[in-house]
Design a protein that fits this description.
The protein is an alpha+beta fold. It has one domain (about 10-105): HIT family, subunit A (2-Layer Sandwich). The chain is about 25% helix and about 20% strand. The chain has three helices and five strands, in the order αβββαβαβ. It has a five-stranded antiparallel beta sheet, with helices on one face. Strand 1 (about 20-25) and strand 2 form a beta hairpin. The longest helix is centred in the middle third of the chain and has 17 residues, at about 60-75. The relative contact order is 0.23. Bound molecules: guanosine-5'-monophosphate.
């Protein structure tokens, strides 16, 4: 998929398409992945459309910290007391398909390592 300034996640932020939203604040949104790879699979995204992690800059320092702490909070809210995994696929080799930065929260089962 090519990089664009708007993506399906922009449409979810603007409520143009539905999503199962589990958390929202002024900077971030978290919603269930439409194609879950684990019993719990939630995406945390910034409302600001940064395409991918490698595009984040020094000025995004506080936002990046906020996203990580939001992922922790959402994982707790989802009841993942036995652990979980955060994943940020970045660029073609990272397997990124939607070019709006997102943190995957995966949990609810024991996850294998290494990933494919
Ligand atoms: P990536 O492969 O870019 O790291 O992850 C993109 C994720 O977005 C995939 O896990 C995919 O299932 C999810 N996704 C793609 N389109 C939609 C959508 O319209 N709604 C939701 N909730 N998730 C989506």
């Amino acid at each position: 998929m090519s990089e664009t300034t708007d993506t399906i996640f922009g449409k979810i932020i603007r409520r143009e398409i539905p999503a199962e939203i589990v958390y929202e604040d002024n900077l971030a949104l978290a919603f269930k992945d439409v194609n879950p790879q684990a019993p719990v699979h939630i995406l945390v995204i910034p409302k600001q459309p940064i395409a991918k992690l490698s595009d984040a800059e020094s000025k995004d320092h506080a936002l990046m910290g906020h996203l990580l702490l939001t992922a922790k909070r959402v994982a707790e809210q989802a009841g993942l007391t036995n652990g979980y995994r955060l994943v940020i696929n970045t660029g073609p080799d990272g397997g990124q398909t939607v070019y709006h930065l997102h943190i995957h929260i995966l949990g609810g089962r024991s996850l294998g390592w290494p990933p494919g």
